[in-house]
Amino acid sequence: GLLGPNDCLVILDDDGNFTSQLTVQQSGLSGKPITIIGETGGSANIAVAGGSARCIFINGHDRISIYNIAVSGATIGNIEGNGVTDYITISGVTSTGGAASLWLDEGVGCVVTNNNVTQGSSFGLVLFTDVTGALVDGNTFTGIPGQTQVYGLYFRYADNLTYTNNTVNNWSLNAASNAVVYFSEVDGLTVYGNTYSGCDAVTHYYLT
Questions:
Q1: Which of 111, 120, 187, 205 is most buried as measured by Cβ atoms within 10 A of its Cβ?
Q2: CA 158 → CA 12, 66, 104, 135, distances in Å?
Q3: Given this model, what pLDDT does residue 49 score?
């Protein structure tokens, strides 16, 4: 049957890759999220071809927690236009090669912590369109030397955002008008403790 509130899906490590998209079909409840987690002590990997594909598609649902998995060539989250996603947690994820590795669109109270992202084709992290009260803390975003990107992290209409203690390495931009970290129309922004190494000169860009 479908995963429901308080259910937990454990992705096992069998030394191979899971190559299909996981699509969340319903929401969790307060105190009873739906949890997707990698096997303890393993390194379960979801690999979806195409770069812009979604490996875990939240599909406009709420109270979903994703922990301790590896993904390659794909996006975790909710691509723009696919509904509100409240109280989403993404933590302990290792992501390589997705067009936008972590993407949340429309929602409140989302948490993105302690993830390790190596650049894809466009972005490292996107919080886009009416994401309120998000915490982005303790993540590492690493570019590939010799490759350029649109942005590293892109926050638009992300009010009451806390962006703290993140590390961004080797992020190169494909145009002077872009930025490693881009804030657009963000009210109530808290920023501290972030470090940048080997990035292009334009680190933060604010547009209000």
A1: 120
A2: 34, 21, 10, 10
A3: 56
